[in-house]
Amino acid sequence: MEWTVIYSNKAAKQYKKLPQSVCTALDLLITEIRLSGPVRGNWKNYSKLAGNRHHCHVKTGMPTYVVVWEESSYGIKLVEVIYAGTHEKAPY
Q: Which residue, 5, 8, 37, 67, is most buried by CB atoms nearer than 10 A?
């Protein structure tokens, strides 16, 4: 069974402002999350954060772009992307 991935309103707005190369990398990450779940140890600087949150870098360098997502705690296979942007403002 696949995971359902949704974007928060904030993340959806942030996605529209990202450079095309970052959008492409984020789309690949979302595809992997849908197929294999929220734990993505094969991505650069992936880590599990407090609670059900995860993060990884979708582009390194200057600036570094980060994605933060959260697993549903209700027993359903749901992941919500809550941040997509530069690492300076990421909600770690």
A: 67
